[in-house]
Amino acid sequence: MALVAYLLTLAVFLYAAESKYLQYNTTSVLVPGKLNVHLVAHTHDDVGWLKTVDQYYVGSNNSIQGACVQNVLDSLIPALLADKNRKFIYVEQAFFQRWWRDQSEEVQDTVKELVSSGQLELINGGMCMHDEAAPHYIDMIDQTTLGHRFIKQEFNVTPRIGWQIDPFGHSAVQAYLLGAEVGFDSLFFGRIDYQDRAKRKVDKSLEVVWRGSKSLGSSAQIFAGAFPANYEPPSDNFYFEVDDTAPIVQDDMDLFDYNVPNRVNDFVSAAMLQANITRTNHIMWTMGTDFKYQYAHTWFRQMDKFINYVNQDGRVNALYSTPSIYTDAKYAADESWPIKSDDFFPYADHVNAYWTGYFTSRPALKGYVRVMSGYYLAARQLEFFKGRSKSGPNTDYIADALAIAQHHDAVSGTSKQHVADDYAKRLSIGYVEAEKVVAESLACMTEPSQAHCKSVSTEFQQCPLLNISYCPSSEVDLSKGKDLVIVVYNSLGWKRKDVIKIPVVSKNVIVKDPTGKEIESQILPLLNASLSIRNNLVKAYLGISLSVTPGYSLAFSATVPPLGFSTYIISSAKQKATSTSERLAVQKTQQSQKNEIEVGPGSLKLIYSGNDGKLIEYTNSRSLVKQSVDQSFSYYPGDDGTHANKSDLQASGAYIFRPNGTYPINSEGKVSLTVLRGPLLDEVHQRINSWIYQVTRVYKEKDHAEIEFTVGPIPIDDGIGKEIVTKITTSMKTNKQFYTDSNGRDFIERIRNYRKDWNLEVNQPVAGNYYPINLGIYTKDNSTELSVLVDRSVGGSSIVDGQLELMIHRRLLYDDARGVGEALNETVCIQDDCKGLTVTGKYYLRLDPIGEGAKWRRSFGQEIYSPFLLAFTEQDGDHWIKSHVTTFSGMDPSYSLPDNVAIITIQELENGKILFRLAHLYEIEEDKDLSVMASVELKKVFAKKQIKKITEMSLSANQGRAEMEKKRLAWKVAGSSEEEPKTLRGGPVDPTKLVVDLAPMEIRTFTINFLSKHSTAEN
Ligand SMILES: [Zn+2]
């Protein structure tokens, strides 16, 4: 026995001593007639989630999550160089750019070769994999452009594939705008509703041709594929990170546990399973997951072996592939694909697990992102007017911060608290720099001659906390003869009039317009409730204890030309204004009062019950709409996920909305209704309870009501988390239908308890009917439209007919077990005293006769996104008007953009070249007057410059539009043989006429070169 063993050992030893180097055959070829298994090696690197973006990059804070993106990219390069058949895709540019900056020129050259050979493919290509529910489409475009232009510049390539594998549901705008209009050939994703997925597996309809826009139809369609399960390998058996437990391929017969036949069988059967639910003989395996390939070799070694042995076996063909190769194979198969319209919201991964809570999670961060987004748009315009500074402050930091904030764990509200703080900090740093750009530009532009720009001394201040009535610049004593100068900038392409409200210390002030004429103004007392919110939040966020308390708000109406500014001067009244009593009216109403209270100085009146102080009617003498309306608050107790009598233990959390009943929020005791009246606006103040305060504003010249809520701290002393909603209730017969926007763009019809693509089994009658809202929500009956527009992304629905609801805040005590590992319990602290977060925000309410609502939703919606930008400075005496430019338009003074078009980008690039985007704001058939082709005259938009060259680009401006269209794949669709009506598009721009036509929902992107200043006459 011993001898035999010895001899055997010797034999093995002798044999092993010879070289056994095995060259695996990893040739990547497609085999017609065989099932081709496309192995797509990838890593999913969240741009912040459990750790911050920087922590993920350098690999710090590993006690939270062992993740280091630097390791991934460092180890990837030698792994790819080791075998030219190996391929990898990389997605998140925020990480890639950090790494790229760290590399030597040699490594950069190597990487450039890998990119150009196709071994390393950069796909998706934005700074992050943006969320698809909470971001505004302008942010999605900007963050994609930032990544794509970097890739173009460094590698001269354009990403071909949309790779949105992790976001929690998928939007129509992602498919048609950030997919087709970017020039992607396909779009892949992992998360769709579990019921939808089950049906699509049976129908083999996980892969579709997605037409996300009814206006742009097949001209903006894209091939789209939902994965059979998630974005990971096909089963637990195929994970190969260093510490993964999947069995490796042991192919050394001289060692124990040789398992090649077994592993080949595993591979073939997993492939067959997937082939059974997939059209054509091509299937994709997503070989990787979150932060994998930190030692890339471990994955490639196993895949080398699989490809070698599976192909020797011959039942299926395995190859290193990429989504591009896969897409080309699908296209070459000449198959017909089912059509998909609308979107993939809401997303549920389980019976009681609707990912609809995150539509509202972290409402303050969502609000901050939206405010910064509108500010960034305006700041880039002003940067362009002055000329981009090479050395001084610019808008690059805020661009980067906003881009990162669109990540699917950032603005979505699903990161850990310290990471949410990191996103906000980046925005804040970016804002401070952009604020300087704005101040310098305005200082320059208000000078009578721009030649003086270099020696400008005006220092403009801005008031980012004006939303809580905090503005040190306006809270100044003007009684000693100083003037307060307010420059009001309008970033929209049309003239605009809006009421401005600023805190002031004295009511004895007057307002002069840009010509020096005194204009109507109104004084509103700052009530104690508003002051205490102001003082508390300023202390919490700025650490300042306020000593000066402004007694009043000063309101006046400002009119500002397109892409321009108007200057208003506030000064002390020479004699006591006789009209003070008219300008300052307060009416306090108690519950006992029997009469109805009518509010509103213009044609819109809100009627409140004198009895209980509740809104009862909305009536407009101009539009002749009259409707009984109730507005109320309720809460959903968040399910804590521990109920023994429930079949599953799902808690409500950062991602998931799982209500456990619903309760009205009744007022505590007597509700006092305080009404402030004046010539410009009326305000209704209501303290609903100790943690909800509400101000409703009705303006003389606006046909909508503005509702400002302050909610928090949400009480949790009963041990129950709560999700707060506001409901607008009418008697309208809305037949389960309502409409919500897709990322602020197309409105999509929603039908309660219904899905177009499958027979919905209703398990969550509230959470399962929630949708993301970025612009607004509306519903209608035979005679009336009820619309609500929002100031940030929120979740909302119509749970009963005639009613709309918005979830405005949520505070929860349990984690919902989707990875974040924290309860969504935001607090705000003054020193060490922490209380639940208070959120203040606005929504806007309007009723219109049927067919009339779109004009307001679109035009005013754009005004919400781009509010007036205010800059303040003080000046001795009153000579500002004589010595400065007081009104300005960047366009020809007689010109205004058509009502259905917005400029969504003016951005100086390099060498005076600019990036310019126009967006048609209306869908087809949305408005009888404005859903038509629109024309923009560039000679008038850029009246002060001369256009030398204009090039139409893809949406992300990384290739010419014509070049992109030439490459577009023409997918065949299954079913309906009916000819689709031809979709409308604006034609090419004639370089001499310079008129841009835009069809409904069209966004057109251009780069424009101007003749340099000295070669053109000043005009
Ligand atoms: Zn992710």
Descriptive tags:
10-stranded antiparallel β-sheet, disordered C terminus, 9-stranded antiparallel β-sheet, 1019 residues, 20 helices, binds zinc ion, alpha+beta, single chain, 24% helix
Structure description:
By secondary structure, the chain is of the alpha+beta class. Helices cover 24% and strands 27% of the residues. The strands form twelve sheets. It has a ten-stranded antiparallel beta sheet with strand order 21-27-28-29-30-41-36-35-32-33. Helix 9 (260-275) crosses helix 10 (297-313) and helix 12 packs antiparallel against helix 13 (396-405). The radius of gyration is 30 Å and the shape is globular. The model is unreliable at 1-14 and 1015-1019 (pLDDT under 50). The chain binds zinc ion. The site of zinc ion has 4 residues, from loops.
Percent in helix: 10-25%
Number of strands: 50
Q: How large a portion of the residues is in β-strands, by DSSP E?
A: 25-35%
How many helical elements? 20
Give the names of the bound compounds: zinc ion
Radius of gyration, in angstroms, nearest whole number: 30 Å
Q: Uncertain regions: pLDDT < 50 for 5+ in a row?
A: 1-14, 1015-1019
Largest sheet report: 10 strands, antiparallel
Mean of pLDDT: 94
